[in-house]
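Bug #77: duplicate submission created two jobs. Keeping one. Sequence:
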Amino acid sequence: MADRVLIFYGSYRSDRQGIRLADYLVRAFGERGAEAELIDAKAVDLPMLDRMYKEYPTGQAPEKLERLAQKIREADAFVFVTGEYNWGPQPGLKNLTDHFLEEWFWRPAAIASYSAGQLAGAHASVAWHGTLTEMGMVVVSSTLTVGGIGHALDAQAQPVGEGGTALTRAFPRFADDLAWWTEAAREQRARRAPPY
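Kept job's structure:
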């Protein structure tokens, strides 16, 4: 059974560089046999959070919210690709994530962060860890961090230079960690229903 992995990306900027990392991850997970799909917050274009998905009466949520809720429920694992804005995560990605709650429960998540500078989005990665845990996900210990994003992946999301080499070297452990927890969570959910 192929792991169903949703890759979430949240920049709304016109000159998005982090989309290269998201595209790389979709391809790299696919090459490992996973069913990986990009969920781009800008393309989904949810409004600023007013009402969570669960706050709509059954069958009355906007169609794009309903479709995304179904994808989240059917996924085995999640990867959050985040840039760093002033030591924090991107507001577009956080807004998209906050529209849901129970849909995230009992599945593993991994964090891939990036920035133009050398810290590679480390502050955003740390912030996401607590947020995702609070939202009911098990966050794996392996992370991907890509500094100098504009020089690590080309426009076709192919690794280049030292940054690309480092990414290529780090990805297998990141993916193995997520795959292990994905299998463990799937088997546990099949064996016993979650407690809530």
